[in-house]
């Protein structure tokens, strides 16, 4: 796989010093929520939602109702299939799910509440301010699964995998922590590999082709992935370890 140099498309810094590309791009709301989903949002989201002011000097594990030994973050969890499957498999790990799309937040809120999962918290806004607020070295893993590939060259600066966000990942991951990335778009995979392989703070964990061609252990699949497979696109699963 080959890719054009992503550094040529880095966004310029705005007046605040934050790269303009850090702004959120995408829809905030889709079809009308079901009655039960709207009820869960009103009744349950206030106790599940993380506000930036909730993050202070206390350990990040204190955000969860039950005891957890580590914290993981999933960025853009969509319908929540993977987030919830991981939370069920690992009740001793806290999961923060970040999703700016209201319908995704509604689905996850309903499922977390109905199943009584004590190890999930939700963040329903642009994730960059959250990344900047979280303490350094506080995350065991960051998952970014099927992000918008922004296929047109003029939109590449909107891709979430870029230099400034890789810096954020490096700051937040504890030594030995992992960044996992899945995509069905070959160019985005090549783009990501080019950036991460050139970064001395990360090491690609793949030892053979099946390590990125096959899903990770316990992978539940997602609706987006199913659509990609139906349309003949082969997903890749890439994992990088923080040195």
UniProtKB/TrEMBL annotation:
The keyword Oxidoreductase does not apply. It comes from Ancylobacter dichloromethanicus. Substrate binds at residues 152, 184, 222-225. Its EC number is 2.1.1.33. The lineage of its organism: Bacteria, Pseudomonadati, Pseudomonadota, Alphaproteobacteria, Hyphomicrobiales. One of its GO terms (cellular component) is tRNA methyltransferase complex. Belongs to the class I-like SAM-binding methyltransferase superfamily. TrmB family. Keywords: Methyltransferase, S-adenosyl-L-methionine, Transferase, tRNA processing. This is tRNA (guanine-N(7)-)-methyltransferase. It holds the Pfam family Methyltransf_4.
């Amino acid at each position: 796989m080959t890719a054009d140099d992503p550094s040529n498309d880095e966004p310029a810094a705005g007046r605040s010093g934050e790269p303009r590309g850090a702004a959120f791009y995408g829809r905030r709301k889709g079809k009308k929520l079901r009655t039960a989903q709207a009820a869960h949002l009103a009744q349950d989201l206030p106790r599940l939602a993380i506000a930036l002011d909730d993050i202070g000097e206390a350990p990040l594990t204190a955000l969860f109702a039950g005891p957890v030994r580590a914290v993981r973050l999933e960025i853009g969890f969509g319908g929540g299939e993977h987030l919830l499957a991981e939370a069920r498999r690992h009740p001793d790990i806290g999961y923060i799910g970040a999703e700016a799309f209201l319908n995704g937040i509604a689905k996850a809120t309903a499922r977390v509440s109905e199943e009584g999962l004590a190890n999930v918290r939700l963040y329903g806004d642009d994730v960059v301010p959250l990344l900047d607020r979280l303490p350094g070295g506080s995350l065991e893993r960051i998952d970014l699964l099927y992000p918008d590939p922004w296929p047109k060259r003029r939109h590449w600066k909107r891709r979430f995998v870029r230099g400034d966000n890789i810096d954020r990942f490096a700051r937040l991951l504890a030594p030995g922590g992992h960044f996992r990335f899945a995509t069905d778009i070959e160019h985005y995979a090549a783009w990501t590999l080019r950036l991460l392989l050139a970064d001395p703070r990360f090491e690609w964990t793949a030892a053979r082709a099946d390590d990125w061609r096959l899903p990770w252990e316990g992978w539940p699949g997602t609706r987006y992935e199913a659509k990609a497979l139906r349309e003949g696109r082969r997903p890749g699963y890439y994992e990088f370890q923080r040195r």
